[in-house]
Each structure stands twice: as structure tokens, then as C-alpha cells.
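Worked problem 6 (solution included).
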Amino acid sequence: MIAGTDGWLFLSSDVRFLSVGQFWGADAAKVSRAHKSESADPIPAIVDFHEQLKKRGIELLLLPVPPKAAIYPEKILPNVDLHGEPAAPWLARFYQVLRERGIDVVDLASVFSRDRANERGSVFCKTDSHWSGFGCVLAAQTIAEKIREKLVGQQRKNYAADWKETTIKGDLVDLGGSKTKNIEPEKIAIRTISDKETGAATTPDPNSPLLIMGDSHTLVFHDFLAEKSGLLDQLAYETGSAPDLIGTRGSGATAVRITLYRRTRKEPDYLAKKKMIVWCFAAREFTESDQGWDKVPVGQ
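Solution. The predicted structure is:
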């Protein structure tokens, strides 16, 4: 954990990721924390996953969450002057390489940078490693714009949205030990989503053509830190139907694809219902995942 200014806290792994330069191809093994050098380069695994899904008629949308320090660099380096340049230039180059390989990538950096000082608050929590409630809404709106036409014909449901304030204890507070023990709980805005008629919470729909899979960014505000306000909830509101969800508190790189594989082993027809998968994980996973980037089958 790295303490910034104005009470902002940052993951040291986020900052390390921003410092390593090119992290794919021949350079991957030099900078990756993967235990196996052959699993260091993320490109082969991502392309393989995309091609497996394509053969099944499923589109992949890659949604890496930009490092918090790339959106708020002045909170960790108060005198920084980027002269209008992005704080994570290697990420933009990497995404272009993926697009040239046929991967559809959503770069949230431009969206988050545009709304980094919104009246709803910041797009990241100050004391937590995840996006804020407002950042989660922005991510869902961005996804919805990309996929709405893919969901034509889906039965729509009416959801109610209500902005509220909630108090959280960010995960970075405990990482700081004695240095952060006196930090006050953080207040953030969240948009709670519920069934307009019954007030019930949104639950994953295993029959949905849309699957959201990934790390804890897919779970935060849905089943921890808050309820009814996570990515699944926001996408249900934005699209009118609840997606399916496979989320993990661990790595969003290889571990979550193994979870998907186990699901398809149990339910051989599971993927037959899917038209699109949104794969969401922290961008630092490209170098910071110790498990690395192994190729994993999506099914039998």
C-alpha cells in the first residue's frame, strides 16, 4: 500500500504495473510476477479465449479496469505534469495490439478521466482498491452502449434506481497497518437497483445471453461493501435484463476462466445460451498475477 495525498491510498502493485513499460511479447517474462515464464505474456491466453468463444458464436468484450494512479496521478505525485499525455501509455498500445488480433477492448481510462471530478464523487474509492459506486455506474453505461444491440429481443424488466450515500472501510486501510489505523471510514455514493414492483434485489440469470465474468470488480457493491449496487445490478438497469455472473475474489486472469471451465463441465449446454461475455478485471493483472496467463479450455 502507498499513501498519497488528501487521504488517498494506492495499491503498490498498481503503481509497479504502471512503471514496468512494455509487458507483452518478448518483454513479458522480464516484468511479470507470474511463477512460470511461459505464462507471463497475456496475449496468447486472451487471443485463445477469444477464438474458442468465437467458434461457439460468442463475442468477447474485454474490460480491464485502469489503475487508480493512472486516473488520479496527482494524488500520488502532487507535482506531476503529464503535458496532456496519458498516465498509462503502454496500456493504450497494448489494447491496440489486442484489437489488431480481433479482440474488442473497452478502455475505461477516457471515460473515467472525463468524469474524475463529477458531482457524484470520484470514480475510484479513496481508501479501497476498487472503482467507486459512481465508477461502477460509468462502467455499466459504457458496456451497455456496446452491447445493447446484442440483446435485442430480450424480455425487458422494470428496475428502480436510487442514489444513496454509504460508508465503507476500504481494503487498503488494513494493508497500511499502523500508518492508516486512524483513517476515518469513507463515504461514497452508490446507485441501488431493485425490481420496480417488488423491491427485490437483482440476481444473476443463468439463462441470459450475457455473462459478466472477472475479479472482485464484478462483485463489489453487489455482495460486499454494499448490496444492490454492483456491476450486475447496474447492467440490469441499463439494459433492462439481468446478466449472468461468474465473479471471483481472486485473480481475474486465469482463475476465473478455470471457474468458467468447471461450470461448463457441470453444465455442458451452459455456453449454448450465451451470445456475449464481458471479461472484467484490474489491468494490473497483466503483470501482477502470480498465476500468470495460461490457456484454459472453455468447455469439452
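Discussion: Residues 133-147 form the longest helix (15 residues).
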